[in-house]
Design a protein that fits this description.
The chain is an alpha/beta fold. The protein has 2 domains: about 200 residues, Medium-chain alcohol dehydrogenases, catalytic domain (Quinone Oxidoreductase, Chain A, domain 1); about 140 residues, Rossmann fold (3-Layer(aba) Sandwich). It contains 10 helices and 17 strands. A hairpin with a 5-residue loop joins β6 and β7. α6 runs parallel beside α7. The longest helix has 13 residues. The structure holds nicotinamide-adenine-dinucleotide and zinc ion (2 copies). One zinc ion binds next to loops.
């Protein structure tokens, strides 16, 4: 079938809106009419990598939400007409997947970032007959229709506000899951969240849900710190790494129980790590490059540094859980969204990069 999609043809170039041919779903795949798809920083990662890492024309998008139109012969979890959120993909059989730690799938790159299906085929062909990469995070959802791996598809309530739910598939579940799953923050504890963007503000909301008594948000933009206050931060900090460490120590009276970094900035990570109490844990989700060095002795005394992918989520359970919290008014992540029509995807990227918009969501044309 003919569909419309945003295609990235060079790592540094703009997205172009194109007509593509979409193939048929395989036995364990689902054809989805995408209603809307969130834009996450990871969609733009190719901008930061050397040009030789760009894998060719590709449809990005990994926070899709929509309605199932058709299913492959072996699909059991959804049927046509179901509302679905599209999340990351995993192999289902490696050591991590056997333990239900799907974000840490040993074959994560192959199933999420290889530019097509794990067998090397793609679902999209352009008007010149050339291959265009598909199955980004198992879904490639910057498109009016796409073919997703069944393992990327999460069924949600038929009455759910599907148009705003795509971001639950990555950014929002990562921020909330870091707090509720990875760190398992308990009531009465102190939590530092560095970076008050989509991940960080979701984390602040989740820390409030968890009953944390001290929630310290760190950012360089006052407007974002104001939002953090609105969603539950008890303290906000901006300034040098030394200022951040001092402010956390002052707010917690001797060190934080938990910290979560979404900046990917080594100096900010070190500033939070230095302000943990001796059994404190810091979880890192913001993507950084190069070395991250911390004081050796500060670790021996009992502190923990852990990475976090996709909020340690089991998407089939955690996404419906977050949707219920949202429906109950306890997790208003939808307020972080600004909608753009698909053909304004380049404007959406600019608005996200400038900090004007927290979570762009691209709405597909009818
Ligand atoms: N690990 C995962 O599974 C996962 C999933 C999704 C996104 N990510 C990554 O998480 C990061 C955050 O994503 P996002 O969508 O929330 O981005 P965002 O741009 O909305 O938020 C980042 C925030 O950090 C702040 N910041 C950056 N550097 C800072 C500094 N030096 N000092 C103070 N504040 C600083 C920015 O002002 C911004 O508000 C990105 O690197 C993204 O690629 C990781
Ligand atoms: Zn796996
Ligand atoms: Zn993402």
């Amino acid at each position: 079938m003919k569909i419309t999609a945003a295609v990235l043809r060079t790592g540094s170039g703009p997205f172009t809106i194109e007509k593509l041919e979409l193939g048929s779903p395989g036995p364990r795949e689902v054809l989805v009419r995408v209603v809307a798809a969130g834009m996450c920083h990871t969609d733009l990662l190719s901008r930061e990598l050397p040009p030789e890492f760009f894998g060719g024309p590709q449809v990005y998008g990994h926070e899709g939400a929509g309605v199932v139109e058709a299913i492959g012969s072996e699909v059991e979890s959804v049927k046509p007409g179901d509302n679905v959120v599209l999340s990351f993909n995993s192999c289902g059989s490696c050591k991590s997947c056997q333990r239900r730690r799907y974000p840490y799938c040993f074959n994560f790159s192959l199933h999420n970032m290889s530019g097509g299906r794990p067998d090397g085929t793609s679902a999209f062909t352009d008007e010149g007959g050339q291959r265009v990469g598909s199955h980004y995070f198992g879904q490639s959802s910057f498109a009016t229709h796409t073919i997703a791996a069944e393992t990327s598809v999460v069924k949600v309530n038929s009455s759910a506000p599907i148009r705003s739910m795509g971001p639950l598939g990555c950014g929002i579940q990562t921020g909330a899951g870091a707090i509720l799953n990875t760190l398992a923050v308990e009531a009465g504890t102190s939590v530092v969240v560095s970076g008050a963007g989509a991940l960080g503000l979701s984390a602040v909301m989740a820390a409030k849900v968890a009953g944390a008594s001290t929630i310290i948000a760190v950012d360089r933009h006052q407007s974002r710190l104001d939002l953090a206050k609105k969603y539950g931060a008890t303290h906000t900090v901006s300034g040098t790494p030394a200022d951040i460490t001092a402010a956390i120590q002052a707010a917690t009276g001797g060190g934080a129980d938990y910290a979560f970094d979404t900046t990917g900035n080594a100096a900010v990570v070190r500033a939070s790590q230095a302000a943990l109490n001796v059994i404190g844990t810091i979880a890192l989700a913001g993507v950084g490059f190069g070395d991250l060095s911390v004081d050796f002795l500060s670790m021996i005394s009992g502190r923990t540094i852990t990475g976090v992918m996709e909020g340690d989520s089991v998407p089939n359970e955690f996404i419906p859980h977050l949707a219920r919290l949202n429906a109950d008014g306890k997790f208003p992540y939808h307020e972080l969204i600004t909608e753009f029509p698909l053909d304004q995807i380049n404007e959406a990227e600019k608005a996200s990069a400038s900090g004007a918009v927290i979570k762009p969501v691209l709405v597909m044309p009818d």
